[in-house]
Specification:
The protein is mainly alpha-helical. It has two domains: 38 residues; 50 residues. The protein is flat. The protein starts with a helix and ends in a 5-residue tail after the last helix.
Length: 89
């Protein structure tokens, strides 16, 4: 039963990734068909520069969220240990 659940999960993850990839390809094909300058080098460079700024911000936010979560978990563990280890007399 556990192996079946793992196989189902892998199939869902695979289909999700394929769906995202197909949507990306669909957008590129539509852009290329609707605009003759979409696949030019200048336009692709502009798109790369604009998305790189967002990518750097997203990576930075990810690091902040991960470090905040780790700090919060450590604080919660220490406070639970501190308050939970006392005598309840």
């Amino acid at each position: 039963m556990l192996a079946d659940a793992k196989g189902t999960r892998k199939a869902l993850v695979f289909s999700s990734n394929i769906g995202i990839f197909l949507a990306f390809v669909f957008l590129i094909v539509c852009g290329a068909l609707l605009s003759p300058v979409f696949l030019t080098i200048e336009n692709l460079q502009t798109i790369a520069v604009q998305t790189s700024i967002s990518a750097v911000v997203a990576v930075g936010m990810t690091f902040v969220i991960i470090s905040w979560r780790d700090r919060l978990v450590r604080r919660l563990r220490s406070s639970i240990f501190f308050y939970g280890s006392g005598n309840d007399d």
